[in-house]
Amino acid sequence: MNAPGVVVDAQDLRFRWPGAAADTVVLPALRIAAGEQVFLRGASGSGKSTLLSLLAGVLPPQAGRLQVLGQDLAMLSGPARDRLRADHLGVIFQQFNLLPWLSAHDNVTLALRFSTRRRAQAAEGEAGRLLGAMGLADALWRRPAAQLSVGQQQRVAAARALIGRPALILADEPTSALDEDARDAFMALLMQCCAEAGSALVFVSHDVRLAQRFSRVEVLG
Ligand SMILES: Nc1ncnc2c1ncn2[C@@H]1O[C@H](COP(=O)(O)OP(=O)(O)OP(=O)(O)O)[C@@H](O)[C@H]1O
């Protein structure tokens, strides 16, 4: 059983893509406490995105142990892992994955549609509060995502991940399309919003300069 306050607990975790000659992910141990912010680095191809997919329950673990919020992911069906993700995880993708025809605001509230628990955790007006906290001017909230700049879309994607205060936020290279100033502003806001929500953060990036913002850095591969 997981100790209270532990969000991720992995041991001897391995994953190999079909046809690969070697294991893609080899993770002897990883334990992340509630609210902890972790920078995950590793060479290109070292399996960072694959590990995030395992943590998100998109891929099933093949060997070893992986518990997320005390649930053993290897024991859960695909739909049960989907439920865990909808209820307790927020994911920020490199390409943001917003629905282009929906407004910024509706992209954020979309995350609530799939989870009663997330809905219950989100206060009235929470989407607007988060968009504001992420620095998106309210004149843009009703604009379709397709008409937002890359930096604006990224703020929407972060607000969508944060809504309903999920226990764990996974971010996969979300700053790669930004210039330095926009990147620094986004990082500060993301880390602050995660801290306020009490969400743990696992942040993957090639950009090692970002690592200094984190008290904990894990290296993969
Ligand atoms: N869907 C897939 N099917 C088969 N192999 C895959 C798949 N996705 C990734 N891989 C392989 O798994 C390995 C790790 O890929 P992954 O994207 O996890 O690495 P990464 O560390 O995130 O890389 P990068 O920093 O370049 O984004 C690579 O060799 C890649 O080719």
Automatic annotation (TrEMBL):
GO cellular component: a single term: plasma membrane
Swiss-Prot/TrEMBL keywords: ATP-binding, Cell membrane, Membrane, Nucleotide-binding, Transport
CDD domains given in the database record: ABC_MJ0796_LolCDE_FtsE (cd03255)
Gene Ontology molecular functions: ATP binding; ATP hydrolysis activity; transmembrane transporter activity
Pfam families: ABC_tran (PF00005)
Domain ABC transporter intervals: 8-221
Protein name per UniProt: ABC transporter ATP-binding protein
UniProt organism field: Rubrivivax albus
